[in-house]
């Protein structure tokens, strides 16, 4: 069985001149194989990660010292808009759905997704959405008018987006690219739900699904309810801008607050759409490296469902300062705080899984441990902000920025890195370097804490977000400098990671089918899995099918 | 470490392994996502009721579209006939059911077109006029675009039936399409209530 990856084979053969480049490109561009589509999602997301990372660095350079004139205010506005939009829509969601695409069919013993061609369509339309966003640098009033990316913030509050305040087409590029990628996201989510419900192998009942599949199922259900409002709001904004409708036009009686509601009805569940897949990775990795079955499987499922429901009723905690009235604020304060209960259940269950386990600190596991600590802190600052009076004080300050980067980077990105190290052997047939992995972990961990721990401080000292420079003597200078230095550490860590990804593809140790001695179905296939996944469709009798196979004397199925 | 490529098939006898159909589940997912989009447009319509700064108001210009509503709602029955006929392998009745569905849907679109023509040229209400125009055309237009998509798909099914390509084994696919059509009809009931009954 070949241990080379399809990617590698393609590269090797192209380099050796065996296959023309065109043929390889054609094969990938027309593929409907869920694994290749998953890899393309991840590749696309990594490209956008680099681009949006560069944007973040430019902003940190600008803010590192007071009275800086490194970039102009206009460019700064474009940078934070593009950074946020890219990271959420073209890095976060594609990379998570890439993993979902790759893993869900494998884990439930299916040969492909339920609708393979819809799957390819969803990928390409999302990719096109991302390209469209960046095409604004050329097209909006762009190179033939020089560089006008969207500059209205990733939330694009009305009436900033009105034709009067945002002339030209930069906002249109933003709207249309999100509309397109939204359609792609809904398509992928539909595919994942249908695959999970209709393509399970014999014996894979709902309560035997790997937790990862459960979490992707809930995430996808949330996508339907969350992305719909975004799509609707984008249609309305497009109507406003193109044919003179008045949805968000305050001059004609339209409401700017309505846009905020619509955006955050999407925007808050979106946070959970991003974080639930991260939980999903941790759910798979922590038990394997603790050598224990996950603690409280039914409680984990129930907590996930609860998070899904509650997250739909908390959106207005982004709007405490708008003036919703006491009743509105109180409701959203409590709804927001209630969500910490199921989240707490999850953290307890992970700790209980680790408790008394034979812990093996391989790179995926140390990233998961980092995740556990940082997610806890992110949750705590979240609860602080969910108290309306506290939020009134700190809304739109750097404290908020620090809080959500703690969730997005400290939790999601750490879980993602863990997932990369964990499933890389399955995808490529080779292990990633542990040494480089540890370097990556420590550099990134130090960088992360330098950046985002200290970012809380200027927030508390009153530094507003989205300002492009500040005068000296306000007590913000030192903190911003530390934050900037932390960002450099993160960059170096990420470079280690990318180097590791590429190098291991050629030089990595051969992994075999099941290098981690894991127990979910994807490890029952060769690495990398053939295009049909399973030669014979598997039958399962418990939550840990491979455990049953490896330990016939004491299978899980006797206990379930 | 076990290096088996696959999991062996169990020799035990197990209960039959029946899973829901992909088409139905997929369509239900699509309907949920679409419903979310429609809800946002409904909310906008209700939120902006009576907030227009200038006329005309809904009460001045809107009339109950009884004819179109009857056509659209009865087309749900005819599409159901088409599916049941196909299930019994009665292709002729299936074609008849589909043809009447397409006809009724087209009649609905004609009545909408007449209504819009009247509103635009006689009453001077466009999407730019005021908030009522904005929300009205957006909501009714969103629904109408769904009707048109449904009509295109139903027409394709009709052509397939007439040319003899639609067989009993395609019942499930037609059923999935009919689900979509029922959804479009159900949305119209809400549009009718909000725009023409409450909104007036």
From TrEMBL, chain A:
PANTHER family: CYTOCHROME C OXIDASE SUBUNIT 1 (PTHR10422:SF18)
Catalysed conversion reaction: 4 Fe(II)-[cytochrome c] + O2 + 8 H(+)(in) = 4 Fe(III)-[cytochrome c] + 2 H2O + 4 H(+)(out)
GO CC terms in record: plasma membrane
Keywords: Cell membrane, Copper, Electron transport, Heme, Iron, Membrane, Metal-binding, Oxidoreductase, Respiratory chain, Translocase, Transmembrane, Transmembrane helix, Transport
Pathway(s) per entry: Energy metabolism; oxidative phosphorylation
GO biological processes: electron transport coupled proton transport; oxidative phosphorylation; respiratory electron transport chain
Protein name in the entry: Cytochrome c oxidase subunit 1
Transmembrane feature ranges: 41-65, 85-108, 120-140, 173-199, 211-239, 259-282, 294-316, 322-341, 361-384, 404-424, 436-458, 478-502
Described purpose of this protein according to its UniProt entry: Cytochrome c oxidase is the component of the respiratory chain that catalyzes the reduction of oxygen to water. Subunits 1-3 form the functional core of the enzyme complex. CO I is the catalytic subunit of the enzyme. Electrons originating in cytochrome c are transferred via the copper A center of subunit 2 and heme A of subunit 1 to the bimetallic center formed by heme A3 and copper B.
A molecular-function term among this protein's GO annotations: metal ion binding
Limits of the Cytochrome oxidase subunit I profile domain: 22-541
Membrane topology: Multi-pass membrane protein
EC numbers on record: 7.1.1.9
Pfam families associated with the record: COX1
Top-tier EC class: translocase
Subcellular location: Cell membrane
Family label: Belongs to the heme-copper respiratory oxidase family.
């Amino acid at each position: 069985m070949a241990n080379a990856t399809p990617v590698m084979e393609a590269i090797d053969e192209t380099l050796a001149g065996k296959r023309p480049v065109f043929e390889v490109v054609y094969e990938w561009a027309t593929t409907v194989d869920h694994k290749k589509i998953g890899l393309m999602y991840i590749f696309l997301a990594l490209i956008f990660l680099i681009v949006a990372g560069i944007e973040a660095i430019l902003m940190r350079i600008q803010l590192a010292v007071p009275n800086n004139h490194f970039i102009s205010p206009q460019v700064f506005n474009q940078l934070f808009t593009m950074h946020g939009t890219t990271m959420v829509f073209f890095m976060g969601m594609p990379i998570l759905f890439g993993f979902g695409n790759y893993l869900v069919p494998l884990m439930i013993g299916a040969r492909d997704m339920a609708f393979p061609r819809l799957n390819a369509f969803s990928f390409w339309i999302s990719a096109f959405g991302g390209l469209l966003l960046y095409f604004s640098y050329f097209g909006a009033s762009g190179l033939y008018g020089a560089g006008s990316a969207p500059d209205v913030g990733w939330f694009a509050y009305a009436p900033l987006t009105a034709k009067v305040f945002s002339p030209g087409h930069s906002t249109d590029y933003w709207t249309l690219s999100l509309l397109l990628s939204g359609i792609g996201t809904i398509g992928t989510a539909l595919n994942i739900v249908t695959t999970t419900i209709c393509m399970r192998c014999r014996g894979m009942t709902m309560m035997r699904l790997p937790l990862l599949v459960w979490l992707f199922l809930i995430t996808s259900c949330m996508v339907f309810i969350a992305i719909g409002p975004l799509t609707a709001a984008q249609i309305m904004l497009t109507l406003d801008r193109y044919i003179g409708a008045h949805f968000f036009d305050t001059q004609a009686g339209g409401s700017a607050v309505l846009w905020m509601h619509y955006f955050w009805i999407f925007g808050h569940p979106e946070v959970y759409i991003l974080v639930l897949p991260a939980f999903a990775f941790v759910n798979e990795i922590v038990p394997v490296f603790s050598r224990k079955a996950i603690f409280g499987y039914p409680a984990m499922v129930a907590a996930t469902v609860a998070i899904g429901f509650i997250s739909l009723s908390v959106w207005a905690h982004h709007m405490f300062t708008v003036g919703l009235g006491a009743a509105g604020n109180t409701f959203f304060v409590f709804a927001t705080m209630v969500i910490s209960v199921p989240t707490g259940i999850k953290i307890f269950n992970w700790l209980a899984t680790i408790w008394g386990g034979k812990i093996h600190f391989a790179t995926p596991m140390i990233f998961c441990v980092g995740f556990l600590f940082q997610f806890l802190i992110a949750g705590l600052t979240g609860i602080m902000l969910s108290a309306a009076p506290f939020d009134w004080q700190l809304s739109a300050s750097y404290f908020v920025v620090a809080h959500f980067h703690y969730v997005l980077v400290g939790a999601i990105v750490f879980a993602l890195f863990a997932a990369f190290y964990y499933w890389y052997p399955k995808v490529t047939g080779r292990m990633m370097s542990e040494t480089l992995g540890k370097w990556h972990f420590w550099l990134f961990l130090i960088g992360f804490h330098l950046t985002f721990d200290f970012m809380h401080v200027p927030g508390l000292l009153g530094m507003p977000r989205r300002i492009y420079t500040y005068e000296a003597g306000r007590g913000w200078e030192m903190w911003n400098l530390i934050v900037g230095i932390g960002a450099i550490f993160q960059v170096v860590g990420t470079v280690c990671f990318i180097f590791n990804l590429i190098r291991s593809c050629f030089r990595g140790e051969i992994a075999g089918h099941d290098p981690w001695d894991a127990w979910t179905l994807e490890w029952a296939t060769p690495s990398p899995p053939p295009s049909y996944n399973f030669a014979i469709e598997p039958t399962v009798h418990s939550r840990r099918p491979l455990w049953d196979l490896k330990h016939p004397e004491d299978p899980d199925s006797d206990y379930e | 470490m076990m290096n088996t490529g696959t999991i062996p098939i169990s020799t035990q006898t197990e209960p039959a392994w029946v899973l829901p159909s992909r088409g139905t589940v997929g369509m239900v997912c699509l309907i949920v996502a679409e419903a979310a989009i429609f809800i946002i447009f409904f909310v906008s319509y209700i939120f902006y009721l009576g907030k227009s700064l200038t006329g005309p108001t809904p009460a001045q210009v809107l009339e109950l579209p009884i004819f179109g509503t009857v056509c659209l709602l009865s087309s749900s029955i005819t599409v159901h006939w088409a599916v049941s006929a196909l299930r019994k392998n009665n292709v002729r009745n299936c074609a008849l059911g589909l043809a009447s569905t397409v006809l009724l849907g087209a009649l609905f679109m004609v009545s909408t077109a007449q209504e819009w023509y009247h509103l635009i040229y006689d009453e001077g209400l466009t999407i730019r006029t005021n908030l009522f125009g904005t929300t009205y055309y957006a909501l009714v237009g969103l629904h109408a675009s769904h009707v048109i998509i449904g009509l295109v798909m139903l027409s394709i099914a009709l052509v397939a039936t007439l040319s003899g390509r639609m067989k009993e084994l395609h019942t499930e696919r037609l059923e999935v399409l009919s689900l979509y059509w029922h959804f479009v009809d159900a949305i119209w009931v809400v549009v009718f209530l909000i725009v023409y009954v409450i909104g007036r």
